[in-house]
Amino acid sequence: MRTWLRLGNRLLFYLLVAFVVVYSAFPFYWAVISSFKPSDALFASDPSFLPLPFTLDHYKNVFLQANFGRNLLNSVVVAGGATLLSLFLGVLAAYALGRLPFPPRNAVLYLVLAMTMFPQISVLGGLFMLLRQAGLFNTHMGLILSYLLFTLPFTVWVLVGYFKGLPRELEEAAYVDGATPLQTLVRIMLPLTGPGLVTTGLLAFIAAWNEYLFALTFTVGDKVKTVPPAIASFGGATPFEIPWGSIMAASVVVTVPLVVLVLVFQQRIVAGLTAGAVKG
Amino acid sequence: MLTQRQVRLAWLLVLPTLLVVVLVAGYPLAQVFYWSFFRADIAFVEPPEFVGFKNYLYLLQDPDFRQALWNTVKFTVFSVSLETLLGLAIALVIHSNFKGRGLVRTAILIPWAIPTVVSAKMWQWMLHDVYGVINILGVKLGILSQKVAFLARPELVMPAIIAVDVWKTTPFMALLLLAGLQLIPEELYEAASIDGATRWQQFWAITLPLLTPALVVALIFRTLDALRVFDVIFVMSGVNPATRTLAVYNRQTLIDFQDLGYGSAISVAILVLIFLFVVAYMRTLGREALR
């Protein structure tokens, strides 16, 4: 009787686990197989749960007809640029905030913390005007700059944590050897924060890669437009025909690199996410 | 003396970041605040006119604003509470030891890794009124008596979008809560078992109280995100009044209606709303983190 009860419990538990996995993964699975089905199979009343029949037409369509390649390149430039700039500025600031005697340190940290929670929408109008005045409207630089609004504070905040965690003796040894603080940062601290840089860089990149509101508002046409607004506005040959196959293909193309990155760096991302959330 | 030099260096290193903060947050914010007292269009076709608090007075009577505020509150309350319950359940499941735990952890990261715009499009396709898999499966399994236009029916569109948001954000919640669960010492449960406490009693007496800090953090974090929701709403139903949240309405006034003055007043209102939550956030977290 008891073994039966335990077996039943076990079974129930694994059913629950299976449900969690299906619930999380099925929509993406459905997007992937939809992207490989020819249109008539896509609009079948009894759709198959495998990508059969199989076609690459939607992918060809996305890259040949639409300016999707251009959008993809824009996303790489903008997200990459915002990430590198945030890491560069963030390392300098975080080193100062984490390791140097610096009287208004708490005030600056509070400022940065407040910024991580800043609603993008409430500066939309101001940024719009600023970018236009500066001639940066519809430029990569304009988007990169505006993305610093959310990538930089996050980077600083998480890196301060990493810097604070390094042992004091390392620095002191370097000073005894006559190194300047800047040399200490570059030669000793930076290599040790490598994992932190990878994690924060990755999270900043993902945030910038996924950003929609600014990209939608600060760009016109496909010259600078990144992938999210492009996918959101994908149209068909006529306004009545939404090209679901192509939308799913484009979705898969922008998501697969992210999913792969996330899976590869899973442990670190979870650590970074929780650190970022717990600390800011 | 090294310290003097260090202080100067510290300033020098922080300066670029502070400049960026002023440039992308401080200055635009000052602009938004300034223009909220004007009647002005965003292209300055007409010369701006100072109107004092008129925009704010209008905001108090604007039924569209009220509706947007109500939509935002509805969205926030439902999505945050659902994802908290679901996230807690998932966290408890993956906290226990079982074969294939890594795989499950990986699976629940997928929704988080997908861009919001993409997940909105995916679900739009799955919720399609004729060809959507949810409708087809729902009818086949007898859950739905007939196909439903989830995103076209005014009373269904908000719940549908909330369901999509819950799907997307629950993993994040689950991960935060899992991190909290892992901090609870195993010995407490062992001692409780020896004393004869049931699983359920252990949950109420040990897990929940000790998880509270993590739960509070996660709740505030997600609430802030939900209050400023834009992407999922705008992609799935545009500026539909039934789902239009504050952020969506704000962008519509600023960009579509080109109304810089009133749009700025809405921005300030949103900022004040969020600010109240940020203060709560700082109270619970800031002090601890600055230690």
How would you describe this structure to a colleague?
- The complex is a heterodimer of chains A (280) and B (291).
- Helix content of chain A is 75%, strand content 0%.
- Chain A has 14 helices and no strands.
- Chain A is globular and about 75 Å long.
- The mean pLDDT of chain A is 86.
- Chain B has 291 residues and is mainly α.
- Chain B is 77% helix and 1% strand.
- Chain B has 12 helices and 2 strands.
- Chain B has helices at residues 2-35, 54-61, 63-95, 101-113, 116-126, 133-140, 154-182, 186-194, 199-227, 231-237, 246-256, 260-290; strands at residues 38-39, 49-50.
- The model of chain B has no long low-confidence stretch (mean pLDDT 89).
- At the A-B interface, helix 1, helix 4, helix 5, helix 6 and helix 7 of A face helix 1, helix 3, helix 4, helix 5 and helix 7 of B.
How would you briefly describe this protein structure?
Chain A is mainly α and about 280 residues long. Helix content of chain A is about 75%, strand content about 0%.
Q: Helices, strands, pairings?
A:
The complex is a heterodimer of chains A (280) and B (291).
Chain A: H1 2-35, H2 39-42, H3 57-64, H4 68-99, H5 105-116, H6 124-133, H7 140-164, H8 168-176, H9 181-192, H10 194-210, H11 213-218, H12 227-232, H13 244-264, H14 266-279
Chain B: H1 2-35, E1 38-39, E2 49-50, H2 54-61, H3 63-95, H4 101-113, H5 116-126, H6 133-140, H7 154-182, H8 186-194, H9 199-227, H10 231-237, H11 246-256, H12 260-290
Antiparallel strand pairs in B: 1-2
Helix pairs in contact in B: 1-12, 2-12, 3-7, 3-9, 3-11, 4-7, 5-10, 7-9, 7-10, 9-12, 11-12
